[in-house]
Amino acid sequence: MLPAPYIPASGSEHPTDLARWRLKVGDGSHGRHTWVYLRTDHECTHWPQTDIDRYWLGLPTGLPESPPAKGPLEAARKGFEFYKHLQSPDGHWAGEYGGPMFLLPGLVIGTYVTGQDFPPEHKVELIRYLFNTAHPSDGGWGLHVEHHSTCFGTVMNYVALRLLGVPATHPVAVKARETFLGFGGAAALPQWGKWWLCLLNCYDWAGCIAIPAELWLLPEWMPFHPWKWWIHTRNVYIPMGFLFARKWHAPEDPLILSLREELYTADYDDIDWPAQQFNVAAADLYYPHTALLHALGALTHAWEQCVLPPVRRRAMDYTYQLVVQEDENTAYQDLGPVNKMLNQIVRFVVDGPASTPFLQHVEKTRDFMWMTGRGMLMGGTNGSQLWDIAFVSQALVETGLAREPANEQAVLGALKWLDAAQIQRNPLHFRTAFRHQTKGAWPFSTPEQGYTVSDCTGEGLKAVIYMQNHLDYTPKLVSERRLCDAVDVILSLQNPDGGCASYELIRGPKWLEWINPAEVFGNIMIEYNYPECTTSALTALSIFTKEYPEYRAAEIRCVHLAVLSCLLRFGSVRFRLCVTRASGAPGLPNPAPVGGRRFKTKAIAWLHTAQHPDGTWFGSWGICFTYATMFALESLSLAGETYGNSASVRKACDFLVRKQMADGGWGESYKACESGQWVDHAMSQVVNTAWATLALIYAKYPHREPLDRAVKLVMSRQQPDGSWNQEAIEGVFNKNCAIAYPNFKFSFTIWMLGRAHTYLQGL
Ligand code: LAN
């Protein structure tokens, strides 16, 4: 298993020839992208490098330059002139989706323990990425690229480097080791790090908070049954429950034995493992353990000592079955990068290294690996395809750029892509896998991954309606029936209090957060209502009902059903009815759509309750208040609430204007997402500026001066070729982990500049 040692001279050289990398798009399924290294000149001649490859590799594109734009519309046009060159032949805009620093180690450990290896060029670039992202000060890594060094980030990435062949004596390894030993070594890892090391046979399962697979055997009505957890959490705990029950680990080898010596401050054989269960480095603790979790830890530990073998076998059979269903539902892409690698290990353990499921897994792992100018990273998903195309498509129509003949081909390509991206059936394993309906939904990445996301469905629907109904040259590729299917999905996702969560309805009680064992993440146990998700759903419905009022009539008829169910509401019966009916839980009918007007009224009411006293909305998926406030003000304006007539809109706008920086821009730090308070970035950011300006435009803000200054700032940052440079990271998840949306610096700037042009003319 020992990989060949790799000894680069420094972290910043280019060990592979960047001119030989190519992004392959749509290989076998819609929207799929994988990076390929061409080894021969012959291959390079037959498959020339494109502007897309060069851009994402950080190589000069040589695209035409021109003098600075004179006005916002011209700047938007110039921006799209550049961005058009990054559109893939299949119609979408591929892009890097990096940021989190705990994913690449899972990829490397999962690959190592299943006896696989990476192609040499990939290996070299994975190493280079880690070298380039180590903090120069202490040689460590954090939870994400902009984060301070943590035990989790530093141990895991150190282990990744070692498994990739970097010797323990390499200066990068030496420096990182000093840092994590200072944090208390691998014994002080958060739970999600402890597991990975257990699988690698460098930590003992007795040192983890138990993950009893038997939880899945409990009656489904119980409030803490795992089917009610947030989908990412339950999908990670399913394979982990299986592997924990089996106490599976890789066989010892010299590298593993050496790592056991390198990772700890004490002798491996002397470590008191049970005492390490709750030992977590202070630098990592975002969500400290609660007393309830401690009690549960003791209980599950006792359970481990007495679980009857037939019960354990049944629990393992059940969790394995859920793993298989997830793999088959997603063609082995799986929901996200963590459960992807864990499922891969389960399929290796049960089905074997030569089995088709395992080999399928290995093949699809490539979808998560993204090549950059700084090396190769593991993405947060298999891409953000749908999300990026939905925004730029709307931007093109709303700015009028879509009506310019030079952009027609780009628009037609985007529409074609969106048409093929809509999911047209429910999952193969539907109710048995506790899935929400997918027929009619748009996913975040590709239809193969195939998970319904509320706001992706909303933005996908809006983009299609804009392109099909607001332009005179586009065909109606997505039929009215399919648009209605999307509406059904959106309506099925409203929670009883009016808000929408991310993938499903809120299924479990809030107190489940008290037993969140993942110390590095907040809000991870259940779904929550999010302003972003609620407003995407709301604006999509508003736009849809303007075009198709007849379908709205049918929905309103269904209000009676909703009213009936309201009458039935009392206590937990009400909660169960809402949650289980609407989520298509086992044995229960599909949800009946509730009325459009009702949806909107309730959603707007919820949005008002979610507004902070200072007038803003907190962003859970983008950084931070500018992001969510933009979405919220868009919704409110569609409902007729603007600066002139709504106190809450006025409050939001006045707050934003107070936060405008001296240079005319806005800048927010990811730290706002951690703390829940506004935190200025050291400098203004074009993406935050675009969001804040769009928010003011949606709100019909009456004074032009802040808008003029914002437009000027974004125009001043435009490069001679029309692009904008990458600035700070744009996105976030689970409060504590930042994630990159590099396409936002094009879609939202173009959108804002084009809309500002029209808006300022009318002021
Ligand atoms: C995403 C990315 C997209 C994001 C939006 C669509 C922007 C949001 O509005 C809804 C939630 C969603 C779909 C989302 C959820 C969590 C994800 C999948 C991610 C942030 C990308 C990566 C993250 C995932 C959880 C990473 C793996 C880590 C675990 C804790 C399992």
Automatic annotation (TrEMBL):
Sorted alphabetically, the Gene Ontology cellular component annotations on this record are:
lipid droplet
Pfam families from the xrefs? SQHop_cyclase_C, SQHop_cyclase_N
Among SUPFAM superfamilies, the record links this protein to: Terpenoid cyclases/Protein prenyltransferases
Q: Which UniProt keywords are listed?
A: Isomerase, Repeat
E.C. designation(s): 5.4.99.-
Q: Which residues form the Squalene cyclase C-terminal domain?
A: 384-547, 600-757
Family annotation (InterPro entries): SQ_cyclase_C (IPR032696), SQ_cyclase_N (IPR032697), Squalene_cyclase (IPR018333), Terpenoid_cyclase/PrenylTrfase (IPR008930)
Check the record and name the Gene3D superfamilies matching this protein: 1.50.10.20, 6.20.120.20
Q: Does the keyword Magnesium apply?
A: no
Tell me the domain of life: Eukaryota
Record-stated family: Belongs to the terpene cyclase/mutase family.
Name listed for the protein in its UniProt record: Terpene cyclase/mutase family member
> Whose protein is this, by species?
Calocera cornea HHB12733
Q: What is the lineage of its organism?
A: Eukaryota, Fungi, Dikarya, Basidiomycota, Agaricomycotina
